[in-house]
Structure formats: structure tokens, C-alpha cells
């Protein structure tokens, strides 16, 4: 199933836009929006969206469950997601994502620390983080560079949308210094 990275570059202002139609739900958040895609009773993808994306009500039960769980996380950063997910990614990416899911709320590890735990390399961990199909569920925002924030979702512009999302999520979870 193709991933939709182009969605983050195209403007959208109406709920009936062709791009909004690709999502089973779009949730407004303090950092912008979260697009949720579902298929055949499972979560397929979650995408960070800039604030100008229109909110969209859930079109199925899994999307409604995802919206509810995102809302719970926004109210309580220690909330743990439990959603049926499509199995995606390579065996290596899945190992990285499992290690990331073990990082407690309010804590961060560096790419190097995660790499050491799974006997890999920091750059490979960073690439797996950027390939995460389920942000928030797999909290890649809890992984940072040794000397600072690092990138996020394959983006690293200091004043860009994605790093602002990462900063917001870390502040939301009580992590200072970023």
C-alpha cells in the first residue's frame, strides 16, 4: 500500500477536498491535525497535518476508536494507545519501533541509545523513526539526537512544521530542554 508523504506539501481547506477524502478521520490538535487512515478494520496510517487541514468525522469504527484515543492522549500524555494496526515495515523497522514503544512517557532516548539496545547504528534507527506509519502510537518523538532535538518524520528544518510538532509533543509529555 503506498504511503502518502505528498499530503504534507499540498494545501487543503475544505472537508470535502480530495485529500481529506483519503483519510478516515482528521482530528484537530494543538499542533495542527492528525490524519487517520483505516482499511479492513485496521489502522493503516497516521499523518501529522498542518492546521489548515479540515477536520473530518470518523467514517468507520476503527477511525472513531483512533479519534477517541488521540483525544485521550491529548488530555493525558501517559495514555497508551491500543489500536488494531496493519503490520507494516521491515523486520528491522519493527525492532526499532518496539524499542521506541518501550520508552516511557516523559523520557527520551537518543538514536544512539536505541541503536545500542537493538545492536544497530544510530543512522539506521533514525531512518526507521522517519518511516513510522503510526506516530503517537509509536512515539518516535521520544527519540532525539545526542546533541539536540534531531529530525522528525524525515524532516529537520529547525523552524519547520514537523519539528514544532516534536517540540509540542515533548513539552506535552513534560520533557524540557527542546
Description:
By secondary structure, the protein is of the alpha+beta class. It has two domains: 5-75, no CATH class; 91-172, Arc Repressor Mutant, subunit A. Helix content is 33%, strand content 14%. The protein contains six helices and five strands. It has helices spanning 18-21, 61-75, 91-101, 111-118, 122-130, 161-172; strands at residues 25-29, 32-39, 42-49, 109-110, 143-144. The strands form two sheets. The protein has a three-stranded antiparallel sheet, with helices on one face. A two-stranded parallel sheet has the order 4-5. Strand 1 and strand 2 form a beta hairpin. Helix 3 (91-101) crosses helix 4 and helix 4 crosses helix 5. The protein is globular and about 40 Å long. This is Methylated-DNA-protein-cysteine S-methyltransferase protein. Keywords: DNA damage, Methyltransferase, Transferase. Pfam families: DNA_binding_1.
Keywords for this entry:
178 residues; alpha+beta; Arc Repressor Mutant, subunit A; 2 domains; 3-stranded antiparallel sheet; two-stranded parallel sheet; 6 helices; 5 strands
Task: Briefly summarize what is shown.
With 178 residues, the protein is α+β, with helices and mostly antiparallel strands. Helices cover 33% and strands 14% of the residues.
Series of secondary-structure elements, N-terminal to C-terminal? HEEEHHEHHEH
Low-pLDDT stretches are 1-15
Percent in helix? 25-40%
What is the architecture of the largest domain at the second tier of CATH?
A: Orthogonal Bundle
**DSSP summary, beta strand count:** 5
Amino acid at each position: 500500500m503506498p504511503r502518502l508523504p505528498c499530503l504534507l506539501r499540498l494545501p487543503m481547506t475544505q472537508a470535502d477536498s480530495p485529500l481529506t477524502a483519503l483519510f478516515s478521520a482528521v482530528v484537530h490538535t494543538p499542533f495542527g491535525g492528525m490524519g487517520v487512515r483505516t482499511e479492513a478494520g485496521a489502522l493503516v496510517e497516521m499523518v501529522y497535518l498542518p492546521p489548515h487541514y479540515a477536520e473530518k468525522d470518523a467514517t468507520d469504527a476503527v477511525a472513531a476508536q483512533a479519534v477517541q484515543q488521540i483525544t485521550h492522549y491529548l488530555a493525558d500524555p501517559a495514555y497508551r494507545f491500543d489500536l488494531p494496526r496493519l503490520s507494516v515495515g521491515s523486520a528491522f523497522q519493527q525492532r526499532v519501533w518496539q524499542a521506541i514503544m518501550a520508552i516511557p512517557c516523559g523520557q527520551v532516548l537518543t538514536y544512539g541509545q536505541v541503536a545500542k539496545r537493538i545492536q544497530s547504528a544510530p543512522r539506521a534507527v533514525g531512518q526507521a523513526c522517519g518511516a513510522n506509519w503510526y506516530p503517537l502510537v509509536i512515539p518516535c518523538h521520544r527519540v532525539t539526537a545526542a546533541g539536540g532535538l534531531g529530525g522528525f518524520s524525515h524532516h529537520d528544518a529547525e523552524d519547520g512544521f514537523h519539528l514544532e510538532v516534536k517540540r509540542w509533543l515533548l513539552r506535552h509529555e513534560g520533557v524540557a530542554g527542546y
